[in-house]
Amino acid sequence: MQAEISALEENNTWIFTTLPEGKKPIGCKWVFRIKHQADGSIERYKARLVAKALVACNNWYLHQLDVNHAFLHGDLHEEVYMLPSPGFAPSASNQVCKLQKSLYGLKQASRQWFSKLTTALLTLGYIQSSADYSLFVKRQQDTFTVLLVYVDDIILTGNSLSEITKVKAYLDQQFRIKDLGELKYFLGLEVALTTAEIHLSQRKYALEILQDSEFMDCTPAKTPLASKSKLTSDSGALLHDVTSYRQLVGRLIYLTLARPDLAFVVQQLSQFMDKPIDQHLQAAHRILRYLKACPSNGLFYRSSSPLDLRAFSDSDWAGCLESRCFITEFCIFLGNSLISWKSKKQPTVSRSSSEAEYRALASTIANNPTFHERTKHIEIDCHIVREKVTTGIVHLMPCKSSDQLADLFTKSLAAQPFCDIVSKLETLNIHSPV
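RESULT FIELD:
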């Protein structure tokens, strides 16, 4: 608490003043949190004063930064008064805090902080990505650096250690950062680095789900969904406790960040969030049994992988028994490394399997996927595919059913074909003794 107050005072976050007539001060409170490492050990204790208001293929360096008191660096343009913090009140009892900088809890705090960070990075020569505003890149002669921001956590990677060191020094001068060294644990993702490969997993997060759901001692399952299973909304009794179901599915959705093997079944379960039935809960419990068998599975990126781009696209025509909409899916590889995948039920009905295939392929290669997901005209999808093929950007290759990796994202499979496809996705359990 004392360190937090010292940081606020050093940053000139407020000045003590008498409350002007007609103004009403907002309250504040202390929020305490314990931050853990991936292995469950305590990294540090955190205290926050809160205002009460509404890279493997190129063998690059991969580092992580944490900005100290990030929201406090944002400039505040509004006139805001706050009651003194509990335990650190001024000597004069009739005084309040007039905020000069942003503070945790203010609705504009995150926006002001990100705006200031963006300005600093642009000054340093970085370019903000138009596809993802939290991504910044800098290319200079033979050096290439990438910076990814999530609130006050930053991932920094590139092929030049001197440039990375320079960026760290600049950010520390501007905002005071904590250099966490090589990337190890980020937003629930566990990162294992060597000079030859990178492994991403959510082992700790998966085990927490099993622990909270009381499934640590369950019987493991070989697949996350029984073969040829079809979930509907009218084949069981409504759940009395829908909140626990929604919470579980929500956590499973986040688990798919590094678990493509769960994408299809989680997509299926998320369609019944409004009125789940006991059949859906049983399917969610089977996912937990599958997690028990392989909580450490994750994505594996090798430095020896080539840099060619390959994509698998497929559709399950009229796959939804209730709406007869089709399910489109794709998975994209950079060399042997899986970098993107998707499984989604489309909002419109296709009149033929060919139409469904064209739309699935268009959603894989389209420059503006949001627009093409909404279109109802197959002619546009056909035009996109043909245009890319004609110009040589895309080469369509025949694919046997046994080699169609996108099948994992369209239907429930038997144990053997499921395991075969998962192994081809370059997923790996680094905690396995084999």
